[in-house]
Design goal:
The chain has about 280 residues and is α/β, with parallel strands linked by helices. The chain has 10 helices and 16 strands.
Length: about 280
């Protein structure tokens, strides 16, 4: 099954980082958040990706073109018998196939999905954004999608609260929780499973996938929600990035499922890759 990842936006709310690189390449723990997202899919044996490029797409191309050389040991001969040479030493790498697809500098999210159509194989595919991490069980998500027979499944999540939450008895505080997860309300957490017919709901480049296509799918009774009650976070601002960095440094990395599970049901090389 193919996984489509949208990685072409300008990331203006994270301008401190995105002036020099696209948001999916902003690093958490020394790795681009795009890598973290792809590693989670790999944990579920999903290794074929179509990445929609736009703003500073050449940065992402260079990263993957140089991935093997820059994530392992090299021996560089500067001269002598046989001349200069560079030899990469064997190191485990993800078993990924990555199609890097130019989808336009100013194309909206729906238009980017539509432009990926030739790379999706005309079959059921997964879709997510290049700035959100989660520990959502992708096997359960896919099973849920196949059980209902509709065209689209969206992962619904409860967003983390931005501020401390208090409960009162008159003026007395009876409960205080520092930035708990929101207890009410569900939002679009991405991590979609989609049938190819969904592409017919997208008119062109300037369509936001989150607007007309999802609204029409819902009105047609073709959109179902998988409720995920575990971890989810979107790196939308510098504050979000800092929080994820702090979590990574502390070892509290709920989205790093490939570490926690020690890759029991995926490629045995993954554990070594994340080292």
């Amino acid at each position: 099954m193919r996984v489509a990842i949208l990685a072409g936006g300008h990331g203006t709310r994270l301008a401190e980082e995105t002036q020099v690189r696209p948001k999916p390449m902003v690093e958490i723990g020394g790795r681009p958040i795009l890598w973290h997202i792809m590693m989670h899919y790999s944990r579920h044996n999903l290794n074929e990706f179509a990445v929609a490029l736009g703003y500073k797409g050449e940065y992402i191309k260079r990263y993957f073109a140089d991935y093997a050389a820059l994530n392992g040991d090299l021996t560089v001969r500067m001269g002598g018998p046989g001349g200069a040479s560079v030899r990469a030493h064997e190191r485990p790498h993800p078993e990924w196939t990555v199609d890097l697809v130019e989808t336009g500098a100013d194309t909206m999210t729906g238009g980017r999905v539509k432009r990926l159509a030739p790379w999706l194989g005309g079959e059921t595919f997964m879709l997510t954004w290049g700035d959100g991490v989660s520990d959502v069980d992708l096997d359960e998500l896919l099973a849920f999608h196949r059980s209902h027979g509709k065209l689209a499944t969206v992962t619904a999540v409860r967003p983390p609260a931005r501020y401390g939450h208090m409960v009162f008895d008159g003026a007395r505080v009876t409960k205080f929780a520092e930035k708990p997860q929101a207890a009410e309300g569900w939002i679009n957490g991405a991590f979609f499973v989609l049938e190819p017919q969904v592409l017919d709901y997208i008119a062109g480049d300037q369509i936001m996938f989150e607007h007309e296509p999802l609204e029409r799918l819902a009105s047609d009774g073709e959109l179902m929600a998988y409720h995920h009650r575990g971890f989810w976070a979107c790196m939308d601002t510098l504050r979000d990035k800092t929080k994820l960095e702090e979590m990574w440094a502390s070892g509290n990395r709920p989205w790093a499922t490939w570490e926690r599970e020690q890759c029991a049901s995926s490629s045995p090389a993954i554990a070594a890759i994340s080292a």
